[in-house]
Inverse folding.
DNA sequence: TCAGTTTTAGAACATATGTTCTCAATAGAT
DNA sequence: ATCTATTGAGAACATATGTTCTAAAACTGA
């Protein structure tokens, strides 16, 4: 009967993340996606339909397999250590590359409502998770009792975006790790 | 003798800022630049050489005429009010559009060393200006004396990048203004 | 081994896009 | 007014790029 397909959709999606990170959406050409993923054109269009639709799938894959896993640190209910663990994982992830979602917002956000919506969702979720963590931290007396939780969560969300941009500029240096300490240190009651 | 050119380089550069903000670099096509700026192809290439070189000129113009002017708030030597004035101007500027420089870093930073360098310069400068402002604020006793100036300046720089991304997502709402208050409020000794 | 179906590789296609070229229109010096 | 250098509008060009098509290769089940 039929022949079996050789390509691995997951591998293709993972490859594509790096390509889109390097060249942006419009800067990425199909030839590179197809060549670097050891794929073939026909298979690509049968599987993914179009470049734009493919981007959405890559983004979903990116969120599911990377961002979501990093955010899970915030759900371990440890208060500040959870936040520290989140940033450690995030910085490691974006180091030298940046964040695909943030890049897409910057490049396509104005024209593409779907990207905007995904971006809003992501930042809202981040904010909510930070609030949860900070409340826990306050209960555990890791935080100054009069800390304004909402505004601190907003701070942390800003840091995430700041890191996403800086990661592109900083390359493979340790700047971001150092920055993390400088930013999170002042939060805790005692020195970390 | 010769005929006089009709186009206005400054107007062309200003138009281009909006176009690049909307569609990104690769998403912007020459036809739109030329049409929207009431320009003509020949003049364009005589004046600017190429799309890439044009982008650099637009970015320089953008920094000189927008970012620089906003950053001048930080050089008025008023301490915290200078910082507040900076953010007010910045938020107003990026509202509903984002920041061209940040967008270029996200889209092109990986491939384009020149963009990276411009980006680094900009963020360094921002950081230094914030430090100056915070020191002044400390002298004027607007700040808790034990505030860590360096790490606070880093925070503020992160906020700037956070706003640049959020401005695209937030559209024309007042979210950013509210966020500014939430972020800057906790800095000052007395409620603003 | 053979048949049938699907995949693969890449040619082919249509359009888009950055850039150059042509030539008539035009402004200014004489 | 005339002449001439330069502009302006868009045709023209070469290449790039997203997508589809073709025909040979390959896998599976009988």
């Amino acid at each position: 009967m039929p022949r079996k397909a050789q390509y691995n959709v997951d591998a293709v999606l993972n490859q594509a993340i790096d390509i889109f990170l390097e060249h942006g959406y419009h800067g990425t050409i199909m030839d590179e996606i197809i060549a670097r993923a050891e794929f073939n054109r026909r298979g690509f269009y049968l599987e993914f339909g179009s470049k734009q639709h493919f981007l959405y799938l890559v983004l979903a894959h990116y969120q599911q397999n990377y961002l979501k896993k990093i955010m899970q640190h915030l759900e371990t209910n440890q208060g500040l250590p959870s936040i520290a663990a989140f940033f450690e994982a995030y910085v490691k992830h974006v180091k030298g590359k940046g964040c695909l979602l943030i890049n897409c917002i910057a490049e396509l956000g104005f024209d593409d409502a779907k990207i905007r919506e995904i971006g809003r969702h992501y930042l809202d979720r981040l904010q909510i998770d930070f609030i949860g963590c900070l409340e826990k931290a306050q209960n555990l007396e890791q935080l100054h009792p009069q800390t304004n939780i909402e505004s601190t969560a907003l701070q942390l969300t800003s840091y995430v975006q700041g890191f996403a941009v800086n990661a592109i500029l900083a390359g493979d240096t340790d700047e971001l790790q150092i920055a993390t300490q400088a930013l999170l240190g002042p939060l805790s009651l005692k020195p970390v």
About this structure: The mean pLDDT of chain A is 92. Chain A touches chain B at residues 21-27, 97-98, 102-103, 105-111, 116, 119-120, 123, 148, 150-151, 154-155, 157-166, 168-169, 179, 182-183, 185-186 (CB under 8 Å). Residues 98 and 122 of chain A are 16 Å apart (CA to CA). Residues 1-4, 29-31, 41-42, 44-45, 50-51 of chain A lie near DNA strand D (CB under 10 Å from a C1').
